[in-house]
Amino acid sequence: MTIKRELEAVAHKEGKWWEIHIHELDRVTQASRTKDIQDMATDLAAIALDLDPDEVKVNVVLRPPGEVMSRWMQAREDAEKAQELSAKAASESRAVVAELSQQFTITEVARMLGISTQRVSQLKARNSAEA
Question: What are the strands, taking DSSP E only, across the chain?
Fold first, then answer.
């Protein structure tokens, strides 16, 4: 059979049960186990729409409790900022090494910056490869 309706559902834990909301249909059902959520949502939609369960597709999203999702989003945002800052720091490190290397030896640059001569060579090589 072909899908006649596609709906969205949100499931969240209420005590020992998963409460499943299909807002478009203004209907709610429950499931005791996570693995039953999809079937319960599909059955609810099929009954409400008077369709065969094979004709209904319900996309279910599990919603975490309380403020957990906002904390998760903040953590993802922080990780993205950290990645951007890390890339900026790496680029600036290469630029500083390149600038100093025009006037000083690798050993002098290493001692000035408190890094190994191998690290100076790596930063110079990466800077040359990007140019």
Answer: 5-14, 17-22, 27-31, 56-62
Q: If you count DSSP H runs as helices and E runs as strands, how many of each does the chain have, helices first? A: 4, 4
d(CA 17, CA 9): 16
Reported as a pLDDT band with limits 50, 70 and 90, residue 131 is: low
Structural tokens at position 33 = 């186990």
Chain centroid offset of residue 23 CA: 25
- ∠ Cα 50 53 55 (to 5°): 80
Asked if 12 and 69 count as a contact pair (C-beta separation under 8 A), the reply is no
